[in-house]
Amino acid sequence: MCFSFALICIFTMTNSETYLAFLQELQCDVSFTKEEMANQLGVSVKSVERHLKTARENGYTFSEEPIPNHKGKKRFTPTQLPNEATLARFTDDEKEALAAALEAAQALLAHTHYEPHLKTVFDKLIQGGDLTWSETDARQNWYFEKTHATPPDQTVFKTIMQAIWASKTVKVDYESADRRRKETRHLVPYTLAFVEGDWTVFAYCPKHQEVRDFRIARISRATPLSKEIDPVHLRPAHFEPHEFYDDRTNGLASDLETPLHVRFRVRYPVAYWFKEKCWHSSQRNGKEDADGLWVEMRVGNKKGIINLLKRFGADIYVEHPPELQAALKVEAKSVARQYEPLP
Question: Which of 81, 151, 259, 282 is deepest in the core (most CB within 10 A)?
Fold first, then answer.
């Protein structure tokens, strides 16, 4: 995890998750085309074809009806579904993975509208199987820390999520970072993310004509707008949330025109923290010597790197750049003055 960054791509499921969603669709006993199922699950037609093959291997059967005037296309209808006990058999490793996933999800989604539904979904997933479940046992076996950040408004969270799905513009009341003013903005939301302990939305902001990140806890109201979005503002096919976040933290979209190259040495035992954790997405650990570990970063916010380094006090020695050395000296003198005897 880089710089306390955990990005949750809520709308991109793993193969196993899409397969489970596919099976749930089959339980509804509705006919479908591969294209309709792909659109329903948000995956490719090839993924649906793989799920069909896997389902057949596990006892499902389907009738296939050609669609008139659509060469090669067929409509599938489930004709036999395995019983629930067969569906719900898990290996021991799969059981442990499900238990860990639920506990992690409950911690991550604790302050959203998903929270009350997680246990219900889990119970439905395992019903008919032999996986015993105890919330008390789970708390003893797993620990995932809940965020201490300001919880987002659940209605706002849900509205933004639905706007992403439907490609809608939302009108929001947003509070500035310094908490000095509120303003109404129109946003085109692209991605929900969990960044540095806060739920965030990456969205196109027509006011500034660029994609920015907005803390959901600072949004007091969100209203979806019915008007069509200008196509140029829609999420581009090439938009990558990870790249966007890396750009923000590496300085390509921050307050420095040119990212600041920083090189510093960290004494042991503090150096172990830098070996075990990525404090910034550009962090590169270098050679080790008797005095500690050498680390390099390219950052776009001088205040941010000062705040990071000064927390380690005398265990950090900055070799480059000189202006960062000077800034940290000023910070150190300022702290020292706080402890001078009163006149």
Answer: 282
Q: Which amino acid is at 110?
A: A
Domain-by-domain residue ranges, the chain?
15-82, 88-141, 154-240, 260-337
Model pTM score:
0.60
> Whole-angstrom Cα distance, residue 33 to residue 67?
9
For strands 260-266 and 198-205, give the pairing. unpaired
pLDDT tens sequence across 190-199: 999 988 778 9
CATH of 260-337, one of 3.10.450, 3.30.70, 3.10.620, 3.30.160: 3.30.70
* CATH 2.30.30 matches 154-240: yes
CATH of region 15-82: 1.10.10.10
The answer to whether 2 touches 34, Cβ cutoff 8 Å, is no
pLDDT at 4 over 70: no
Give the pLDDT of residue 73: 87
Burial of 92 (0-12, 13-18, 19+ CB in 10 A): exposed
- Give residue-wise pLDDT tens across range 22-70: 887 887 777 899 999 888 888 888 889 988 888 888 778 888 998 888 8
